[in-house]
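Summary of Year 1 activities. Much of the first year was spent building the evaluation harness for sequence design. The harness presents a backbone, in tokenized form, and records the residue chosen at every position. We chose the following record to illustrate the format because it has been used consistently in internal testing since the harness was completed.
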């Protein structure tokens, strides 16, 4: 190093050392004055861990909760600490551009492949990955429809078309699967993160072809996901769903004929089906959704996360209930955040809630989850069920605005107020959170909700919006405006393709805390339906 360089570097290190000393003094002063919470070191989990390591109340989640404790210091402090000066920011989505995963489904018809594809897509989209399902059946139907429209030729897609001994049909099915894979690869190249190839891919030969094709692409990970099912009741239910939900393959047949044809189609596939065992492939084999999972060669963050999610799914019938806490004293005063108690009307709601829930759930078991805030714990107090508190369920942290009314925020922080109205999902309160931050902290809650059966969550407006958006697959722009009124129980019943919903409003008045979307912005859509789609929504792009 030259002398000049050495001098420069000495001066620089002196400067850094002085800065560090100043910062350390400032930190000590802040800690001494109580402005800054002392650093908490989280102890490792005890060796006597309960079986559900990541479950509600389990050590992993407890550590997650503790590590995400947000300071809920009163916003009425005269001047905010330096870290929260400036205006609340719109925080951009994380950069996932390097993530390129192909999930190739495997399995016989009526084994729940589309169910798993759909669930995985919704979960990853909720976490902001760009995900798309490429369903070969949809492509086949769309192409056949186009052919019929253009050439007037109607293709025969009865069981005969799916027979391995029909060479021409086998060739055309292979071509469709290849074309769909090409569309998927192209889409990943254009910026997608996870492409799901929803086809049977039920022979070693077909899987080898997919593997060979993906080997030609750099930076793409291939995972096979087999949905194996030998439970006659599930298979029968899937067959019924296929023949009764308006599948275009069966639109000209009676339900009886349709059922017979579909069962024949399944037996054609069974003749050549090979379950996945290839030791060199990355795969997950899920038996009877949730009964047994085999994992082979799954590496990397996103792949492991996908595997973890799929391991937690089940299809046992159940209900998920959402309720906000009863009306709180802060609600009455129009203030946000805080940790106030219930108003007298809120207490009436807490007392009326058990009858509503028990009428609905009967003798079935139920667990109640609350946040750690007083208003949710108070609301749950009369419910005769096991209760768990989650820090992750605490209301969106409004930072310096905590404890203020919307009018006070508009006056004190006009830029923040306008920023939030412009892009509510991305706006992060000074020293607080954005809706995106909340989605991230709710991810373990979603994981656990998938694993559990009947659950009642007594939560908060923003929190329940995020969870509701996951179950109804609602877009980010609509999420912060979803109506979750006070004194109302929302009952969700998960179905194969979405959730049924019922709402029960108790006749106990409460204030309305919903601020509608500003007029200039697009109004939210109603929630998605549970109908399965049978055609590719957008025009099929010709491949180069
Ligand atoms: O007003 C009740 C409340 O739960 C507040 O504590 C919270 O800040 C707010 O709702 C979240 O709703 P929004 O995002 O619409 O301000």
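For this record, the design step produced the sequence shown next.
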């Amino acid at each position: 190093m030259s002398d000049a360089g050495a001098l420069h570097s000495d001066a620089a290190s002196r400067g850094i050392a002085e800065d560090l000393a100043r910062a350390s003094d400032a930190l000590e002063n802040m800690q001494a004055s109580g402005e800054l919470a002392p650093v908490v070191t989280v102890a490792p989990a005890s060796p006597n861990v309960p079986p559900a390591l990541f479950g509600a109340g389990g050590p992993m989640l407890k550590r997650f909760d503790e590590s995400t404790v947000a300071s809920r210091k009163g916003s009425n402090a005269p001047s905010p600490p330096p870290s929260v000066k400036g205006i609340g920011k719109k925080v951009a989505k994380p950069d996932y551009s390097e993530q390129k995963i192909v999930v190739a489904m495997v399995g016989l018809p009526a084994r729940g492949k589309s169910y798993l594809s759909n669930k995985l897509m919704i979960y990853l989209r909720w976490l902001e990955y760009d995900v798309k399902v490429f369903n070969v059946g949809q492509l086949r139907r769309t192409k056949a429809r186009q052919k019929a429209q253009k050439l007037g030729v109607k293709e025969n897609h009865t069981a005969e078309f799916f027979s391995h001994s029909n060479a021409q049909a086998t060739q055309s099915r292979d071509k469709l699967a290849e074309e769909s894979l090409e569309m998927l690869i192209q889409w990943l190249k254009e910026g997608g993160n996870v492409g799901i190839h929803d086809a049977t891919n039920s022979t070693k030969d077909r899987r080898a072809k997919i593997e060979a094709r993906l080997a030609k692409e750099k930076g793409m990970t291939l995972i096979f996901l087999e949905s194996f099912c030998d439970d006659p009741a599930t298979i029968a239910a899937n067959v019924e769903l296929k023949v009764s939900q308006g599948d275009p393959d069966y639109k000209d047949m009676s339900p009886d004929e349709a059922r017979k044809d579909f069962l024949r189609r399944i037996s054609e596939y069974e003749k050549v089906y090979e379950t996945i065992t290839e030791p060199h492939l990355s795969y997950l084999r899920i038996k009877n959704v949730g009964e047994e999972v085999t994992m082979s060669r799954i590496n990397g963050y996103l792949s492991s996360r996908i595997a973890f999610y799929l391991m937690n799914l089940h299809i046992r019938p159940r209900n998920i209930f959402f309720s906000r806490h009863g009306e709180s004293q802060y609600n009455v005063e129009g203030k946000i955040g805080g940790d106030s108690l219930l108003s007298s009307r809120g207490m009436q709601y807490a007392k009326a809630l058990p009858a509503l829930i028990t009428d609905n759930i009967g003798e079935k078991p139920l667990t109640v989850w609350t946040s750690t805030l007083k208003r949710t714990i108070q609301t749950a107090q009369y419910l005769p069920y096991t209760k768990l508190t989650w820090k992750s369920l605490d209301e969106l942290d409004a930072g310096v605005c905590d404890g203020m009314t919307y009018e006070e925020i508009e006056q004190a922080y006009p830029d923040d107020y306008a920023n939030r109205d412009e892009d509510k999902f991305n706006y992060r309160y000074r020293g607080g959170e954005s809706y995106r931050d909340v989605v991230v902290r709710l991810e373990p809650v979603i994981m656990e909700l998938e694993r559990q059966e009947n659950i009642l969550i007594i939560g908060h407006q923003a929190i329940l919006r995020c969870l509701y958006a996951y179950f109804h697959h609602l877009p980010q722009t609509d999420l912060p405006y979803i109506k979750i009124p006070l004194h109302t129980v929302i009952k969700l019943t998960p179905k194969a393709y979405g959730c049924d919903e019922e709402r029960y409003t108790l006749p106990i008045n409460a204030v309305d805390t919903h601020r509608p979307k500003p007029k200039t912005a697009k109004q939210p859509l109603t929630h998605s339906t549970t109908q399965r789609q049978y055609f590719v929504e957008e025009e099929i792009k010709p491949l180069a």
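The chain has three domains: 4-90, 101-312, 320-397+433-505. Quantitative recovery figures across the full test set are reported in Table 2.
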